Amino acid sequence: METRELRYFVAVAEELHFGRAAERLGIAQPPLSRTIAQLEQRLGVELLNRTSRKVTLTAAGSGLLAEGRAILGALTAAERRARHATTDQPPLVLSLKTGTSGELLAKLLDAYAAEPDAVAIELLFCESQPDRPLHDGRADVALLHQPFDATDGFDTEVLSTEGQIAILPSSHPLATRPHVLLAEVKSLPQLPPARWPGPDGTYPEGPGAEIHNQMQLLQLIELGRTSVVLPESCRTNLREGLTAIPVQDAPTVTTVIAWPPHSRSRALATLVRVATRL
């Protein structure tokens, strides 16, 4: 199996749409489709179920997606380490979810830059699962949000806790309420909760829109097609036409800084110390 084939398959498996995958890879759709078909023929299994309306993963496809992500992540990590092998102070790669509090991130980066032994920090934004680059070696440290992101196998320090808000169109009747309950948000017939892909790339069952990125999510909410419950800090990123309402009974979100327990990086130790001090 070639790395190119694996990269093509992972793109299709994550997007579950050949057109979006081709756009993401910067290639035309026909050669992408041919490559996936040739890969399936060589392996002797179907990786994808294709219909005129959607693409889903088979059991074999889900397995290859997990393995493929790990392989491609390991390759990326190896390339990064090789490039930085001769550098006295290699940069730290910080993985975080798109939409993470800009205020928290700015304070952390500014405070760390003031440290005498600070090194450059590269930001790796993820639409979902920011813990994955930490597992596969593409990142040195991550900002994770419990209970949504997995922290098993990492050392962590708590940075902040916050409540959650429901994001609704400003024209919706609930938008004038001082607060709502979680059950009220989940039972809105015209605004079914948005659905994010799981670790295997598949979406949970439900009527809500399948979400690929934060921009798409906010556009769909503004159009009255879906709703979402997010951490309170996401309020600062809202565009006109959207309203944030506190959800009284939603679980508290805890933001932690996480890193591999085997790390011996002094630069990372300094970043963790600065983060916990803030």
Unreliable segments of 5+ consecutive residues: none
Number of helices: 9
How much helix is in the residues? Answer: 25-40%
Class inferred from helices and paired strands:
alpha+beta
**Shape summary:** flat
User: Strand order across the biggest sheet?
Assistant: 4-3-5-10-6
Strand count, sense and barrel status of the largest sheet are: 5 strands, mixed
Oligomeric state, counting identical vs distinct chains: single chain
Can you give the mean pLDDT? 88
Through-space gap between termini: 47 Å
Number of strands: 10
Radius of gyration: 21 Å
Give me the strand/helix succession.
HHHEEHEHEHEEEHHEEEH
Give the DSSP E fraction (strand runs of 2 or more residues).
Answer: 15-25%
Keywords: DNA-binding, Transcription, Transcription regulation
Pfam families: HTH_1, LysR_substrate
Domain HTH lysR-type: 1-58
InterPro entries: LysR_HTH_N, LysR_subst-bd, WH-like_DNA-bd_sf, WH_DNA-bd_sf
Q: Can you walk through the features of this model?
A:
The chain has 278 residues and is α+β, with helices and mostly antiparallel strands. 38% of the residues lie in helices and 19% in strands. It has nine helices and ten strands. The chain has a five-stranded mixed beta sheet with strand order 4-3-5-10-6. Strand 1 and strand 2 (55-57) form a beta hairpin. The chain is flat and about 60 Å long. Belongs to the LysR transcriptional regulatory family. It holds the Pfam family HTH_1. This is LysR family transcriptional regulator.
Layout of helices and strands:
Layout: H1 3-15, H2 18-25, H3 29-43, E1 48-50, E2 55-57, H4 59-84, E3 92-97, H5 102-113, E4 121-126, H6 132-136, E5 141-146, E6 155-162, E7 164-169, H7 182-186, H8 214-222, E8 228-231, E9 242-246, E10 253-259, H9 266-277
Parallel strand pairs: 3-4, 3-5
Antiparallel strand pairs: 1-2, 5-10, 6-10, 7-8, 7-9
